TrEMBL record:
The keyword Metal-binding does not apply. Transmembrane segments: none annotated. Belongs to the short-chain dehydrogenases/reductases (SDR) family. It comes from the Bacteria. It comes from Streptomyces alkaliphilus. One of its GO terms (molecular function) is oxidoreductase activity. This is SDR family NAD(P)-dependent oxidoreductase. The keyword Lipid biosynthesis does not apply. Keywords: Oxidoreductase. The lineage of its organism: Bacteria, Bacillati, Actinomycetota, Actinomycetes, Kitasatosporales. InterPro entries: NAD(P)-bd_dom_sf, Sc_DH/Rdtase_CS, SDR_fam. SUPFAM superfamilies: NAD(P)-binding Rossmann-fold domains. Pfam families: adh_short. Gene3D superfamilies: NAD(P)-binding Rossmann-like Domain.
Length: 257
């Protein structure tokens, strides 16, 4: 990573900030992107990087200018996790799709032609274990994260022989604002085994060094994913049991209030 030009979206806090710090500590030149300009600037100052605030979907041209040339590594980390199911408003579904999927597509659209010409480039997608499994309580998040993983897989299958490396990072619970705001379902599923953002960043750097497509900061996710594929009825039964537990807890909280 020494001297590499790296862009991290959603890097004003949480996993993104930890990634920015991890890449900077490895010797990379880091562009810190976030919708919140003050938070992006604070992280950039801390790591001696550059702040490129704004929409993650359109950050590539500005990041190129800020870094003084080509981008070597792009971390598509920005994401949102609205709650709800099919009853959620159309704009909620659209926002999840736009941030969690189309921001990756738009970045790749800007980056891949140059990477193919150079014969090298690296795309790191923060997907979430929800992309391999599911996320109770948030259909927009779960569905869009499945799509984000599918896009990363397509990128890897299509461009690997031409020098483009792709990684899909699929953590479970991480101690961030997103977990805090995840509601009863998120807390029940994720809080007990939550890890720090720094542990995710360490796993990402290790995964890059080993050229692994699937990066699992929670190794047990591989077991869950295997169970989901090999015995879907049993796996869905277990998830539905968890859903019933969440509903009981939610009712108990409402009754107490």
């Amino acid at each position: 990573m020494r001297g590499a030009a790296v862009v991290v979206t959603g890097a004003g806090g949480g996993i993104g900030a930890a990634l920015a710090r991890g890449f900077a500590a490895s010797g990379a030149r880091v562009a810190v992107n976030d919708l919140d300009a003050e938070r992006a600037l604070a992280v950039a100052r801390e790591i001696d990087g550059v702040a490129v605030p704004g929409d993650a979907s359109a950050v590539v041209p500005a990041a190129r200018r800020a870094l003084g040339g080509a981008i070597d590594v792009f971390c598509a980390n920005a994401g949102i996790a609205p709650t709800g199911g099919p009853e959620a408003d159309e704009d909620v579904w659209a926002a999840a799709w736009d941030v969690n999927v189309m921001a990756h597509v738009r970045a790749a659209r800007d980056l891949v032609p140059e990477w193919l010409e150079r014969g090298r480039g690296r795309f790191v997608a923060t997907v979430s274990a929800a992309g391999l499994l599911t996320m109770l309580g948030s259909a927009p998040y779960s569905v869009s994260k499945h799509a984000a993983l599918a896009f990363a897989e397509w990128m890897a299958a299509t461009y690997r022989h031409r020098g483009v490396s792709v990684h899909a990072v699929c953590p479970q619970g991480v101690r961030t604002d997103m977990l805090r705001d995840a509601g009863p379902a998120g807390q029940a599923l994720l809080a007990a085994d939550a890890i720090g953002p720094e542990e995710v960043a360490e796993a990402v750097l290790a995964g890059i060094a080993e050229e692994r497509f699937l990066i699992l900061p929670h190794p047990r996710v591989a077991e869950y994913a295997t169970a989901r594929v090999t015995d879907p009825n049993r796996w869905l039964g277990g998830m539905n049991k968890m859903q019933r537990i969440i509903e009981e807890r939610t009712r108990g909280t409402a009754d107490a209030v």
